[in-house]
Structure to design on (155 residues):
C-alpha cells in the first residue's frame, strides 16, 4: 500500500508519461504498464469523459514502414481502459470486453494523437470512441472499446 509520504516506485514513469499529478496516488502502485512505456505513449489529458495522448510512429511500424495497425489499437485500448478505470472509481476496476478499429489512412512518420471520448458511462459498462489523427489533424483510424466495471473483491 502506498501512502502519501512514501514515494511511488513509478513516480518517474508517471511523470514521464504526462500523467497528471492528481492521478499519481491512484496509479502509484501499478504505473502505466510496460507496453504503454514501450510504445512511447504520452498523456495530455485524463478523465473518464475525455483522455488524450500521443504516440510516435517511429518504433511502432510494421515491415512496410507505416504505423502498425496493432499500434493504433494499443493506443485506443490504453485510452479507453484508463478512462473506464477512472470512471469505475475506488475499489473497482475496468476490464475491456470488446474493441474494434477501422483504419482510414496510413502514416509513416511523426506523431499520432488519440482522443478518447465517452459514449456511455454506466454503472457496469462504459463505451468510448477513440479517434487517431496525424499532426495535420487527418483521421487515421477510429476505434471503440467497451469495458465492464467490476468490484475489486470479485474474481
Amino acid at each position: 500500500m502506498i501512502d502519501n509520504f512514501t514515494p511511488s516506485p513509478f513516480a518517474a514513469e508517471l511523470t514521464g508519461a504526462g500523467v497528471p499529478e492528481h492521478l499519481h496516488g491512484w496509479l502509484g502502485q501499478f504505473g502505466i504498464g510496460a507496453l504503454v512505456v514501450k510504445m512511447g505513449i504520452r498523456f495530455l489529458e485524463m478523465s473518464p469523459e475525455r483522455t488524450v495522448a500521443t504516440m510516435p510512429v517511429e518504433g511502432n511500424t510494421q515491415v512496410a514502414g507505416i504505423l502498425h495497425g496493432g499500434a493504433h489499437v494499443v493506443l485506443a485500448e490504453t485510452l479507453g481502459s484508463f478512462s473506464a478505470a477512472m470512471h469505475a472509481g475506488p475499489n473497482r476496476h475496468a476490464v475491456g470486453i470488446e474493441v474494434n478499429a477501422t483504419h482510414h489512412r496510413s502514416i509513416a512518420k511523426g506523431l499520432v494523437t488519440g482522443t478518447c471520448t465517452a459514449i456511455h458511462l454506466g454503472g457496469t459498462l462504459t463505451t468510448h470512441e477513440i479517434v487517431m489523427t496525424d499532426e495535420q489533424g487527418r483521421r487515421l483510424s477510429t476505434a471503440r472499446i467497451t469495458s465492464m466495471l467490476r468490484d475489486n473483491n470479485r474474481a
